[in-house]
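Protein entry
_____________
===
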Amino acid sequence: MYIVHSTFKVPEEKAEEVIQIYKNRSRKVDKAVGFVAFRLLQNSKRKGEITVHLEWDNKENYLNWVRSKEFKDIHELEKKYPDQELASIIPEVHQYEVVAE
């Protein structure tokens, strides 16, 4: 299994707005080959710290998703988000190979 975390920080007063965006996400990734799960995580102490947690069956399928037209389309829409402060946030991405369960 392959896990990807994209963590970003937003002003705490905008955290709920970001959460709502993800609750209404397109779900295109859900249909990608090898996709296992999506979770949106909010730091319990720093409410403006949010992490997108994705689980994949393997690294190859994750990389195929990142190279796909659907991935590019979704991320182009993010750049056009009306709130430019949110649109300009660059997440810190970490990738993990599950080595034991």
About this structure: Residues 61 and 67 are 10 Å apart (CA to CA). The radius of gyration is 14 Å.
